[in-house]
Amino acid sequence: MATIKDIAQEAGVSAATVSRVLNNDTSLAVSEETRTRIFSIAEQLQYKPSRLRRMKKDEQLSRQQIGLLMWSTLEDEHEDPYFSSIRKGIETRCEELGISIIKVLRGNSKVDIQSVHELDGLIVVGSIDDHDVNQIYSSANRLVFVNHSGELDDYDTVKLHFEQATRAVIKHLTQLGHERIGYIGGSDYVHRLSRQYEAAEVEEPRRIFFERIMRENGIYDESYVLKSYWSSNSGYEAMHRLLQRESRPTACFVASDPMAVGALRALHEHGLRVPEDMAIVGFDDIEISAYLNPPLTTVRAHTEHMGKSAVQLLLERIEGREAAVHMTINTTLIVRESCGSAKSEHGN
After folding, report:
1. In whole angstroms, what is the distance from residue 7 CA to residue 14 CA?
2. Which CATH number fits domain 64-160+304-329: 3.30.70.100, 3.40.50.1000, 3.40.50.300, 3.40.50.2300?
3. What local confidence, expressed as pLDDT, does residue 75 receive?
4. Distance in angstroms (rounded) separating the CA atoms of residues 280 and 334
5. Which CATH superfamily is domain 4-47 in?
6. 128: nearest Cα among 188, 66, 176
């Protein structure tokens, strides 16, 4: 693509002169012959001003029609805003760029394959089997997976830095003097679009990193680790089970804020004080976490940023990037009263 510098070199004048001529600067003292030569060379080199290139790019963007495939249901999003926040980030960035989301599909319902094939790109939110996705949308270089639990070498992916988040939690609790630290979390699955196959359970990263880091510190106790479901009721029941241990932990990392809400209620019902009898750290930093009693220390997952990043990766693919990119988003530890420290924020 020709530049002002190319035209200046061909015409034998300065780049500043070319710029002023092409912008019709009447105050410039230049001969008509030179002015005509500059315009002629610009036409020969098919020069297009940057503003026209931007307009063309914006016009091309506005013609892009992408789809969004989410495993979570609307009910899931209502109960836990983690995935709705990712979706909000996708929608916000698309609106900023003038890109149309013409299909929002749910993996747990029947997917119209023909309508998916017509899309310019597809963003998949949640752990859906990549081979199944590729069956309904064969353009692998126009796929972005967000918050997928597996390793997807051939596709663009956006994930949270779960190891960084878990290290920050354990470091904070151990610095407060805790060694008996429990863990409550849910299970993770890679789901299938085909109803003839069962979802495959995979290792949940927070639990895996919790065990690894606790072992590194020489304080891991398997009896303090409980696996349940991603809901407030499950957090409530899991905490009840944890409190039945002969020796209970003095702190607990609960892998989602909705689960932490239930865990806090269980502690209150047992007459235990938070954080004096048990410190609690959650994960997500949903809106209600700051208004619990006591306010919840938690990991802020920048989920809206994850959604925006997915759109950016898809746009780069549409514009021709060939190599797959794997983006990892850091988290922020938000320290509140549920672990007994002064309120502050720690980015790690």
Report:
1. 9
2. 3.40.50.2300
3. 81
4. 12
5. lambda repressor-like DNA-binding domains (1.10.260.40)
6. 188
Helix residue ranges, H only, 4-81? 4-11, 15-22, 32-44, 50-62, 74-79
Q: Is residue 38 packed enough to be buried (19+ CB in 10 Å), middle (13-18) or exposed (0-12)?
A: buried
**Measured distance CA(159)–CA(140) in Å, rounded:** 18
pLDDT digits (tens, 9 = 90+) for 77-109: 887 889 999 999 999 998 888 888 888 888 767
CATH 3.90.1010.10 fits 162-301+331-347, yes or no: no
- The pLDDT value recorded for residue 54 is 52
pLDDT digits (tens, 9 = 90+) for 243-280: 998 899 999 999 999 999 999 999 999 999 999 999 99
Pair 146, 157: CB distance under 8 Å: yes
Q: Is the pLDDT of residue 342 over 50?
A: no
Are the C-beta atoms of 83 and 90 separated by less than 8 Å? Answer: no
pTM of the entire predicted model:
0.78
Consecutive H or E run containing 168: helix 162-175
Residue 338 CB coordination number (10 Å) = 26
Q: 212 is written with which tokens?
A: 């690894």
Helix, strand or coil for residue 241?
Answer: helix
Map out the domains of the chain as residue ranges. 4-47, 64-160+304-329, 162-301+331-347
